[in-house]
Design goal:
Layout: H1 19-43, H2 55-80, H3 86-110, H4 120-131, H5 139-156, H6 184-203, H7 206-215, H8 219-229, H9 231-253
Helix pairs in contact: 1-2, 1-8, 1-9, 2-4, 2-6, 3-4, 4-6, 5-6
Length: 254
């Protein structure tokens, strides 16, 4: 979803995108759309209540969220690892933050008891900011920080964090009611893992090789990458389209 991509030893004037990462982002978006369609089927009563939040579907949802945040970390490092390019970074950050605010406003109106106050876009916004602090750290230290965030969460949960304003940290002792909740703990670990993996990949020359492969991409590759290049817009419109389609089908089928 989020960041511009750059290759080479120094940030070029214009970022060069890596086709494979756009395709990976496309795959994550398709997975998210499938999950949301399942959620909508449940909401309209076509499948059993609780289907989307239990069993394999619950695992599927976590994999999708983790993949998006992992790709945020990879993209963040490739675009800004040699020095933060503030203008494109702030422009992109503002777009994602504005989209997150729109999601909050819309769901607050539509479902006030379980609205999205810190979903995937909110998490990406915060992860993009916090990730800047780790761009210059060694890869192993970054990966160690990711592991620490995951394994330390049970020990950090405390009544001190039960204030609603701190709920986004994910450290409350009470369950959070929201249809999409992606808190800092433990999900920021996925972004750090992406940053660490990007550092290792760069040291191994992997991204340069992948960028050269993308230079001769096929028409199919460009088509497959298109959703990944427009994932923010698609994220905003796909749920209204899915819900409207199911509502129309329900009305027509009686």
């Amino acid at each position: 979803m989020p960041s511009d991509l750059a290759l080479g030893a120094n940030p070029p004037a214009k970022s060069r995108r890596i086709l494979s990462l756009d395709i990976a982002r496309s795959a994550a978006f398709v997975g998210m759309a499938i999950y949301h369609f399942t959620f909508d089927l449940e909401m309209f009563g076509y499948i059993a209540p609780g289907t989307s939040v239990s069993g394999g579907w619950a695992i599927f949802a976590r994999v999708i969220a983790g993949s998006f945040l992992f790709l945020v970390g990879v993209s963040l490092y490739l675009a800004h690892g040699n020095g933060i390019r503030w203008r494109p970074f702030l422009r992109r950050l503002a777009m994602v933050a504005a989209a997150a605010a729109l999601i909050t406003a819309a769901t607050r109106y539509a479902m006030p008891d379980s609205y999205i106050f810190f979903g995937i876009l909110h998490s990406i916004t915060v992860a993009s900011l916090l990730g800047l602090l780790f761009l210059r750290l060694p890869a192993l230290l970054t990966l160690a920080a990711a592991a620490l965030i995951v394994f330390a969460k049970p020990y950090l949960q405390n009544g001190w964090f039960d204030a609603p304003v701190l709920a986004a940290l994910g450290l409350t002792t009470w369950p959070v009611r929201s249809v999409d909740f992606v808190p800092v703990f433990p999900w920021f670990a996925a972004t750090l893992a992406g940053i660490g993996a990007a550092k290792i990949g760069r040291a191994a020359g992997f991204w340069q090789w992948l960028g050269q492969w993308g230079d001769g991409n096929s028409r199919f590759g460009r088509i497959a990458a298109w959703p990944g290049r427009h994932s923010l817009v698609l994220y905003l419109v796909h749920q209204p389209v899915l819900i409207a389609s199911l509502w129309t089908f329900a009305k027509l089928s009686g």
